[in-house]
Amino acid sequence: MELLFVVLLAACLSLSVRYIFRDRETFGEAMFPAIGAAVASVVWAGLTWLGWPFDGGWIWVVSLLAGPVVCVAIGLFLPKRRKKADAAMLDSLSKA
């Protein structure tokens, strides 16, 4: 049951990360919540396998912060790469 709460809270926190970037049009609206939820669930499962108690506070802090941190890292490099790929695609399509 706790894993469900972690996934939902991480998705909500990761959704807010989208709005700190200027180039929001280069990625979808559901990308960050999906990535944040997936990362938080993997971190939660990994930490429980390592023996962290699910009712402890640190597992919640680490799991809930892992998703938005990964989303910020992705949001820092994705817009530049996406614009470069779009320009290359436009160039290749306009030559055909």
- The overall pLDDT average reads 92
- Which value, in Å, is the CA radius of gyration? 17 Å
**Per the principal axes of the C-alpha atoms, what is the gross shape?**
elongated
The residue fraction in helices comes out at: over 70%
What is the first-to-last residue Cα distance?
54 Å
Instruction: Indicate the proportion of strand residues.
Output: under 5%
Main sheet: strands, sense, barrel: none
Poorly predicted regions: none
Number of strand segments? 0
Question: Which sequence of SSEs, written as H and E, runs from N to C?
Answer: HHH
Class by helix and strand content?
Answer: mainly alpha
How many domains would you count in the coordinates? 1
> Please, how many helices?
3
Description:
The chain has 3 helices and no strands. It has 96 residues and is mostly helical. The chain has one domain (2-18, 27-95). The model has no long low-confidence stretch (mean pLDDT 92).
In short:
The chain has 96 residues and is mainly alpha-helical.
Write the layout of secondary structure elements.
Layout: H1 2-17, H2 31-49, H3 57-95
Which structural traits does this protein have?
single chain; 96 residues; 3 helices
